[in-house]
Amino acid sequence: MVQSLVTEQLNSQFVTRESDRLLAALARDVPLVCGIVNVTPDSFSDGGRYLDTSAAVEHGLSLVAEGAGLLDVGGESTRPGSRPPSVTDEIDRVVPVIDALAHRTAVPISVDTSRPEVMREAVAAGATLINDVRALRVRGALRAAAELQVPVCLMHMQGDPESMQKAPTYTDVVSEVRRFLIDRVDDCIAVGIPVEHILVDPGFGFGKTLAHNLTLLSGLHKVADLGLPIMVGLSRKGMLGAITGRNTDQRLAGSVSAALIAAQNGAQILRVHDVAETVDAVAVLHALRNSSQR
Ligand code: 8Y7
Predict the structure, then answer these.
(1) How far apart are CA 59 and CA 210, in angstroms?
(2) Residue 110 in contact with residue 130, Cβ under 8 Å?
(3) Is residue 222 among the annotated active site residues?
(4) Which of 58, 66, 71, 80 has fewest C-beta within 10 Å?
(5) Rounded to whole angstroms, what are the CA distances from 113 to 132, 230, 259, 268?
(6) CA within 13 Å, CB half, 240
């Protein structure tokens, strides 16, 4: 319902603001492929900040060339067991990359952060979506997001990255994730974030066992029925390692398969490392949808 409302609004007016371009892209019937740009000191080189920045920018541009419709720039590793960097470190990592990318590509840029200070600097540098794995629960984040007036993606996580994989427990994972997201959406609306600016994400791998992740993937349509755009991140995740028995660098086929299943079950944004391959997979889905419409 919300989806068609967004489409209607977008068709009835000029799309002028940067963040509206993202919403316009979402209103199309093909899922958007979001390329992951990690800016952590050890992710590209050990040669200092400048090398980290330029490597991340070049990587982002290559993902655009592969067909990414969105770039998600993050400076905090949320791998299970990881510890967060300082606020200053996080800003120093992501802001130069966002700034450079915003000047060099028209593709919208998302900032993957939970911190209000980072959100402000990132949006000032050109980010037009806040992707928050903590769903704006850090003190000050909700208000910062409301003031910045850009779309937000609210992700479900049980616990925190340091401990979330220790003993994930649910009675009914799909309804609990759905309930969490509804409550977070309500809090966003209460501080003045327009509902058309809200995306949701079930948070694959964030405080979930393999069984939980599989139940969520097959029940994704029950999250989709909230009527809000869904983002998913399954790329190279542990659940694919558990299923295929492969290391992170060998999970391409598993990642593409999982992304396509998510798309078929209602996901609008696929957050991936392997953009070119996912774009091809999405093209197959798109062709199928178009042919079955006739
Ligand atoms: C997700 C995410 C990560 C996800 C959204 C990884 C930042 C872990 N995963 N954001 N971020 N959804 N929205 O393996 O699933 O990529 S980090």
Answers:
(1) 30
(2) yes
(3) no
(4) 58
(5) 5, 18, 22, 20
(6) 19
Residue 195 DSSP label: G
For residue 31, the Cα-to-chain-centroid distance in whole angstroms is 12
Q: Would the CB of 255 count as within 6 Å of ligand 1? A: no
Spatial distance between the Cα atoms of 121 and 94, rounded to a whole number of angstroms: 9
Q: Answer whether 153 contacts ligand 1 (Cβ < 6 A).
A: yes
User: Atom 1 in ligand 1: which residue has the minimum CA distance?
Assistant: 233
Q: Which residues of 147-186 are buried (b: 16+ CB within 10 A; e: fewer)?
A: ebebbbbbbbbbeebeebbeebebeebbeebbebbeebbe
Whether 237 is a known active-site residue: answer: yes
Going 163 to 250 to 97 to 279, the CA torsion angle's sign is negative
Q: Which domains does the chain have, with CATH numbers?
A: 12-292 (3.20.20.20)
Q: Residue 160 forms beta bridges with which residues?
A: none
How far apart, in whole angstroms, are the C-alpha atoms of residue 269 and residue 275? 12
- For the question of whether the overall pTM of this predicted structure is more than 0.90, the answer is yes
* Residue of 134, 178, 184, 237 with catalytic role: 237
Residue nearest to atom 4 of ligand 1 (CA): 233
Residue 157 has pLDDT above 70, yes or no: yes
How far, in Å, CA of 273 to CA of 291, rounded?
29
Greater model confidence, 8 or 179: 179
Q: What percent of the chain has pLDDT over 70?
A: 89
**Is the model's pLDDT at 280 over the cut of 70?**
yes
**pLDDT at position 293:** 60
- Report the alpha-carbon distance of residue 45 to residue 57 in Å, rounded: 13
Cα 57 to ligand 1 centroid, rounded to whole Å = 19
Give yes or no for residue 237 CB within 6 A of ligand 1.
yes
